[in-house]
Design goal:
The protein is mainly α and about 50 residues long. It has helices spanning about 5-15, 15-30, 40-49. The protein is elongated.
Length: about 50
């Protein structure tokens, strides 16, 4: 059984699920391998500005 803090954490995770999936989709879409990380870095910058 979850206590109130755990329930709040789960609720917040649920609330962020759409954004989490969208960010993951954008990161996977960008080609990024060692030495060519620019696309993923740009994606992270757009998301977290």
């Amino acid at each position: 059984m979850l206590d109130s803090i755990e329930k709040r954490i789960v609720a917040q995770c649920d609330a962020l699920m759409d954004d989490t999936l969208a960010l993951t989709r954008d990161l996977v879409r960008d080609y990024s391998v060692l030495g060519r990380e620019h696309g993923a870095l740009e994606t992270m910058q757009r998301w977290f500005e």
